[in-house]
Amino acid sequence: MRARSRQVAIGAVLTLVASGLGVLSAPTASAEPCGGIGGPGSSPLLGSSGSAGGGPEKNPRGPQGPLPSISGSATSVAWVTGPLSPNSTYDRLGISGTDLGISWDNGKGQTLMAFGDTFGNCSVSGAQWRSNVLMRSDDKNLADGITVADAVPGDQNSGAVVQAAAPKFASEIVPSLGIAGVEDTVIPTAAIAIGGTQYMNYMSVRQWGDPGRWVTNFSAIATSTDNGQTWATSLPTIRVNAGITIPSLPQVEESNGKYQMNAYVEGQDGYIYQFGTPNGRFGAAFVARVKPADILDLTKYEYSTQDPAKPWSTNVADSVSTVKEPVSELSVAWNDTLKRYVMMYGNEIDRTILARTSDKPEGPWSAPKTILDTRQTNGGIYAPYIHPDSTGNDLYFTASRWSDYNVLLLKTSVDSLNR
Predict the structure, then answer these.
(1) Which are the contacts of 400, defined by CB distance < 8 A and separation ≥ 6?
(2) Residues 412 and 392: beta-carbon distance below 8 Å
(3) Could you tell me the CA-to-CA distances from 44 to 20, 210, 277, 345 in Å, in that order?
(4) How far apart are CA 22 and CA 56, in angstroms?
């Protein structure tokens, strides 16, 4: 969907959220990715229209340092993004810093990766901010990192989405208004391929707050039929986060706030399972399921009640958490080695990255295993996303380091999850 089309289509939703339906507000945070102060977060901006504090006093290439040395339950493999990464994303894609790196199989064996707020030349005003970008990889050997091929304008299988006028500058794929207090940015939180179509769940961020806290307008699903080259938001999938229920408007339901940040996994039973958390990093995790053909129809979703007598309900208000808070930026995958589902997420209070396993997506989930204590690493590591090409005993995942504001690949052992 073109930027202007999305602004018109989403404008009514933003008007609804802003017209007295219990909209929350939060103070603006002071951190910024091109090198500044503040704690771990997802790139809170300092002003409107992507003003990230770039300026001539900044290093154009951003603050990225050497790959952090991490050992123990998790080990660092390689940078995925940044000027110092093997992919040299500053020179090849105009990316000095970005985060998340949500990865999924596109249904044809290629890995797509969606990134959050993205910055280029830090020495110019606005730092060439984009709300999000997408990369593609054909690399199946993750032992030495993730290789992203060159980007080619118009090529739906090349390393990134770029335009002919700027072939070395990754394009924003889902535009945002870029207006603080209205729609500061749009950030992907989950994605999955079904029948040749890509489905990406994203959150519309209204305003940033203290580290780990922000307020969303809504979550929604955008679709792509050209391998991530272009995206269109499905308006019926919007889950308004207004803190209020209007029976005549099913998309305005208080419990939709439980599904503002999400994760997808294809179940062994034919369902697509969607895990949701509220905005920010301090909520619990909830789970819903839907048949693949119905992923764009919210009326067809069933929600886990955690009640053995009636385990599923078509009413989102009946959602009961499957993992207690705090859960942040989670990912879930079926693991062929364990023959169990694996969940990874961050605990913002303990500053740890945790993993759990379960026979069923709705749980019960095992006790958490600490994969990484981020307090023992410099710079704050967050947002673990399981890579779809993890095989055997190796479980690969991407994560972001705040001080560099870039994404790295890490590895842990499946065996350690059974101990």
Answers:
(1) 99, 100, 101, 381, 382, 383, 406, 407, 408
(2) no
(3) 25, 9, 19, 20
(4) 41
CA–CA gap between residue 378 and residue 83 (Å, rounded): 19
For residue 407, what are the β-bridge partners? 400
Nearest C-alpha neighbor of 298 from the set 315, 321, 285: 315
Quote the pTM value.
0.93
Whole-angstrom distance, CA of residue 419 vs CA of residue 398: 23
And the tokens for 134? 């997408």
pLDDT in tens, 248-305: 998 999 999 999 999 999 999 999 999 999 999 999 999 999 999 999 999 999 999 9
Contact between 18 and 181 (Cβ < 8 Å) = no
Q: What are residue 247's DSSP bridge partners? A: none
